[in-house]
Design goal:
The chain has 4 helices and 6 strands, in the order E-H-H-H-E-E-E-E-E-H. It is elongated, with a radius of gyration of 18 Å. 4% of the residues are buried. It starts with a strand and ends with a helix. Helix 2 (29-40) crosses helix 3 (44-64). It has one domain (2-116): Irregular (HU Protein, Chain A), CATH 4.10.520.10. By secondary structure, the chain is α+β, with helices and mostly antiparallel strands. It has helices spanning 8-14, 29-40, 44-64, 109-116, and strands at residues 2-4, 68-70, 74-81, 84-87, 94-97, 100-107. It is 41% helix and 26% strand.
């Protein structure tokens, strides 16, 4: 498991109003990079590189099958699902579902409180 603490500067970034998004809008990587650019004062290219680097690190760790724990945010865990039988909802025909690995996210208590406040 990889533990990643949130730095105080990052906490400050995420404690403000969510990136000027309106209700129902999705956030993109570019929105995160733009917010880092505005609040930290680095160039837009550097901010985009940092976002890309962090996401690539998360993907690499999860691809190996390890978990990622971000203190104050939550855990990303890779689970293995076995083969099982499913049904085509339209026809009712039984089909086989192959085994695979899936990523699950479990939010921390701090994150749950923040979302529900």
């Amino acid at each position: 498991m990889v533990k990643v603490p949130l730095a105080s500067g990052i906490r400050r970034i995420f404690s403000t109003r969510p990136f000027g998004l309106r209700k129902g809008e999705s956030m993109r990587k570019a929105d995160i990079a733009n917010e880092i650019y505005k609040q930290v004062g680095i160039s837009k290219n550097e901010a985009a590189d940092i976002v890309e680097l962090v996401l690539n690190m998360l993907k690499a760790v999860l691809q190996k099958g390890d978990s990622v724990k971000i203190a104050g945010f939550g855990n990303f865990v890779v689970r293995s699902k076995g083969a099982r039988k499913g049904r085509n909802p339209r026809t009712g025909e039984e089909i086989g579902i192959t085994p695979r690995r899936v990523v699950t996210f479990r939010p921390s208590q701090v994150f749950k409180k923040y979302v529900n406040s």
